[in-house]
Amino acid sequence: MLSITKTNSQNLDFLKLVEALDKELAIRNGDANDFFAQYNKVDFINYVIVAYNNDIPVGCGAIKAYDEITMEIKRMYVSQEMRGHGIAHKNFKRIGRLGT
After folding, report:
1. Maximal C-alpha separation, the chain
2. Per residue in 27-65, pLDDT tens?
3. Which of these, 38, 48, 54, lies nearest to 77 by C-alpha position?
4. pLDDT at 21
5. How far apart are CA 62 and CA 14, in angstroms?
6. Are 63 and 71 in contact (CB under 8 A)?
7. Is there a contact between 62 and 47 (Cβ–Cβ < 8 Å)?
8. Cβ neighbours of residue 63 closer than 8 Å, sequence gap 6 or more
9. Residue-wise pLDDT tens digits, 81-100
10. Looking at residue 91, what is its pLDDT?
11. CA-CA distances (angstroms) from residue 61 to 30, 32, 66, 71?
12. Domains and CATH numbers, the chain
């Protein structure tokens, strides 16, 4: 069963998923990864969701606020084995409601 939890960037399951995302991006980006990695910090993000499939963390996403009118969607990720099951779509819909 899929469930989604609202949390922040200190959540250990979120951090584990971000680590998996970073490893995947390092492979995809190759030599350019160091440049992009500087923009992918997760310190102090208050709007984070983690998707669980039967209590196992399988996806995440976040919104990082810069000021009252500027935010960025960050760290959207679904584990490879769970891709194609609509988890990212459900995460994105939930992220849209994080501030409410």
Report:
1. 40
2. 998 988 888 888 788 888 999 999 999 999 999 999 988
3. 48
4. 95
5. 10
6. yes
7. yes
8. 45, 47, 71, 72, 73, 74, 95, 98, 99
9. 999 988 877 655 665 555 54
10. 58
11. 23, 23, 16, 13
12. 2-95 (3.40.630.30)
Strands (E), 1-100: 2-7, 47-53, 56-65, 71-78
- Distance between CA atoms of residues 37 and 51, nearest Å: 23
Residues facing 5 on adjacent strands:
50
Distances (CA, A) of 45 to 32, 56, 84, 95: 25, 22, 27, 13
CA atoms in the 13 A half-sphere facing the CB of 75: 32
Residues with Cβ within 8 Å of 6's Cβ and at least 6 positions away in sequence, in order, are 47, 48, 49, 94, 98
Q: Are 62 and 73 in contact (CB under 8 A)?
A: yes
Q: Which of 15-19, 22-26, 31-35, 76-80 has the lowest mean pLDDT?
A: 31-35
**pLDDT for 42:** 81
And the tokens for 100?
């409410």
